[in-house]
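FAQ
Q: What does a multi-component entry look like?
A: The components come first, one per line:
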Amino acid sequence: MKSVTGNDLVVIGGGPAGIAAAATASSLGLRVALIDERVTLGGQIFKRVGPGFDLRERKSLGKDYARGSDLIDEIDRPNVTVLTSTTVLTIEDGKVITSHAEEGIRALDYRFLIIAPGAYDRPVAFPGWTLPGVMTAGAVQTMVKTQRISPGKKIFFAGSGPLALAFSAQLIGLGAPVFRVIESAPFPSPVNALRLLSRIGGNLDLIRDAAKYRSVLLKARVPFKYGRIIVKAEGEGRLEYVTHAKADREWNPIPGTEVREACDALCVGYGFFPSHELFRLVDCAFEYDENRGGFSVIKDEWGATSVDSVFAVGDGTGVTGSYSAVAQGRLAGLQIASRLKKITEEERDSTAKPYARELRARNRFQSALNKMFDVGAGIYRLADSKTVICRCESVTRGAIDPIIDSTDDVSVVKGISRAGMGLCQGRNCQRHIAAMIADRHQKPISSVSFQTPRFPVKPVEIGAIADDSVREEKYFIT
Amino acid sequence: MSEFLVGYLSNQSNHEDPPRECDVLIIGGGLLGTSLAYYLAKEGTDVTLIEREEINREASGTNAGSFHFQIALHQLTPNMTNSEKERLASEVRLQVDAAKLWDNLEQELDADLGVHFDGGIMVAETEEEMGVLRDKDEIEKSAGLESHILTGDEMRAFAPYLAPDLAGISFCPREGHANPLLVGPTYAYRAAERGVRFRTDCGAESIEVLTGEKHRFKVTTNKGVIKANRVVNAAGAWTGELAAQLGLKLPMGLSGLHVNVTEPREYFLKSMVQHIGRRLTLKQTHNNTFIIGGGWPSRPEPYPKRYSNIWNSTSGNLAVALRVLPMLKDVKLIRTWSGVWAYTLDFKPILGESERIPGYHVAMVPTGFTLGPMVAQMLSEYMTAPKGSVKLPEEFRVDREVA
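Then the predicted structure of the entire assembly, as tokens:
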């Protein structure tokens, strides 16, 4: 294991929040190491085009691409080390342990640590969701953004929240043939719309974006329907038909309202879950906030968590979007610079002002939006007994239900059924199972506890981590 | 396969308040506690078992489910004296008995427990280790445990997946494994059928010895007071802590163990693989994943937090695994976990009734999965027979002192 020492700050995650944090901290003289598991920086929203592509017209890729480029340019400094294609496996005793195909295992020490892991698509298990041709919005976006490949010739988009609109419009803009978009939430009620309007200050750009996206759909004559939810996907060997239906307030499909349509790609985007594996591994305190994506790490206005010298920023702490993420990153960078005496508290506060203001405005707006697109419990009831819940271990709902009848403990369900023991490490099914337990035992999902956090945070080849220089102690008696 | 587990869990009375009195009160719902409850109930004893969480949750359910009938490598040294060899042989005889119990257990409990006897391989890397392996083989054979030594081409033909340059291996056909998630709960299910009252989320907070009353013990739990004639401390890793309440100092220690689990690969490794000189146990499960452990440490955490894993344990443990099975190089590690291993300072079970506190029993055994059911059966025989008619081995004495 190699050591990378002398870092004032290690930032995990090269999306908007992580890059902004690294940019601010490094501009104030901190030695920063920025880690990301992808080949290029940018995270999901600022994702770069894939290697091998020659970018001629940056403008054609849209505003977010340009915002990302500007931000990435900011960290082009000698005191910033960027480690891409590098996966964090664990954090232990003040060291971030990473793996890289050529560099092997490296341990980075730090005085401060910022964890900006981002979020991942909310997996939704409905009959047929494992068919080829059914993809999450994030996966489709990656495919289209980095490889310029459309997932199908006739794409159906089912989802919820502002990103359902944004994603589908972006896909259309990039030439992917979306033919229908459904949104599970009802058409905004006057109360919700007014709440949103009252918080519009500082968010006009988002409203403009939304209007633009809507007009993209209108221009392309793609129907956008509120209050409908995906019910089923069917096909021989791959996706051929989708069925969608009207949804009630709790997002339960209303019988008799089903519509079946032919298509070859289904893009599913029902929001995100924050990636909280690393926060749990370092034992940060959590709270439950449905609007931030469920269990969320507790942090102060600068992003400091309950664990000394560990900060949390970006969508991994609750999904609030890229503008908010950048502001969070800047604030954390400032606070750490001030704790390391690179700037005074007065300098910190005066520089922080515009970011704090922006963050407040964004968060107010976001929470109004979240109320509007509140995820209904019905989304966890779409699976039938044959539907696979844990796709790594092929465990169906029918196999899980009787276990849940007898226990409300996620670990017991996992132990007996093997759901959550596969390559995705439970990312696809654990939350679903927690929701099933909550539903069956009539208790809030916040009371269903986590499984114990364990490394590696991502699967890794044995050959990459085996270290012959580590010797065990001799046994207890000789 | 999980009907007994689910059946046990759905028993609503588990969550009721405990009875006010009973004959035997077992504290701890691990494999020892549940199997003891079964054997006692089979003889008609009135038993209540209390467990502060849920049964089978700690070491009983988190171990790898292996039967360790071969002599454990930490017991072996080069150039052993004859008396050391005789001591080890007596342990092997115990293990041979345990093998017989496991052989019959699925029939006894009328349940699938995932019991398989696929054999165990112990590898030696160096000629010095090979010498120890030969000594071990000799002791095992003398105690009635079948074992074979293979080297060179013979070894490579028998186990072509092993690194070809190993000095040699021993093979014990009797070794195998069972599913640790099923054994304890199935015992509990069968014990409950015979009238044992299980009470979970019910922890023993304090124990008092009573004098001049009908019952000898008063145990205070978070769910009320239970009076019992006899108490069995079967609290696994917490046995010593519980015994200390009554001033008993048990010769035991705790150690956190690290376990690695990989992604599944095509099934090829029938037998468990161990190393005579280094810390390694490696096997492929019936889910096709590899479980790799062997005694690498994990970090103690205060209860109720689980022991946490240590990176060096993973990287060191996996290096030993690759030395023995190089073909696992590109298999992905998915998870690690850790459990608490309770051991005794002389590696003998602590089993029986305290001489200082009559009526107070302790059941603790270092290789708890392999030997647990058997020592539970021995203790049950002792507790149900007329006083003095059944004797437990002297070296298992509860009140012994170990230097």
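Q: Is there any commentary attached?
A: Sometimes. For this entry: Residues 3-61+180-251+346-396 of chain B form a domain with the FAD/NAD(P)-binding domain fold (CATH 3.50.50.60).
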